[in-house]
Design brief:
- It is a single chain.
- By secondary structure, the protein is an alpha/beta fold.
- The protein is 31% helix and 19% strand.
- It has four helices and five strands.
- The protein has helices at residues 35-45, 63-72, 90-102, 116-126, and strands at residues 26-31, 49-50, 53-60, 76-82, 108-112.
- It has a five-stranded mixed β-sheet.
- Helix 2 packs parallel to helix 3 (90-102).
Length: 147
């Protein structure tokens, strides 16, 4: 006979499935070759909403995938972009592509370094700079999204 601690109780899950929302969502593009960045972004922003609209996180893992993603979704509200991916300037080249070829600019962009030493070299040659921190932000950057 099984002890009380060994008894497994099943929960009836025949209830209705949660409704999928058809409401408009803010599209956020995460373009980074590090899977952990995509997972962390999804986790950090999973329950975030602005003006009643939730976020749809779109992922690309290379500059080439980023180009395809940006062409397929001209209504992206913000881009979180890794500067250094396949090459030291892949992210910066993608920014130029978005500005000059796509011509539908997201409301906000944030570029993150691949590694601090490599980023300093890429930034000094391109004239861009960035500040990084290890502290998790207390809230998502609402100023990045269109009002």
């Amino acid at each position: 006979m099984a002890e009380q601690d060994d008894v497994l109780h099943l929960i009836d899950d025949t209830g209705s499935a949660p409704e999928t929302s058809t409401a408009r969502k803010w599209k956020i593009a995460v373009i980074d070759d590090d899977q952990a960045v995509h997972e962390g972004t999804r986790f950090a922003l999973s329950d975030y909403s602005l003006n009643g609209q939730t976020l749809e996180i779109l992922s690309a893992y290379s500059a080439a995938e980023g180009r395809t993603l940006m062409r397929a979704h001209p209504d992206i509200a913000a881009v979180l972009l890794d500067v250094i991916m396949e090459t030291d300037a892949a992210g910066l080249d993608l920014v130029e592509y978005i500005r000059n070829e796509i011509r539908t600019r997201p409301s906000a962009s944030s570029c993150a370094p691949g590694s601090p030493a490599r980023h300093r070299n890429a930034a000094s040659s391109s004239g861009t700079t960035s500040t990084t921190t290890r502290r998790r932000p207390s809230s998502p950057p609402t100023s990045c999204l269109p009002r």
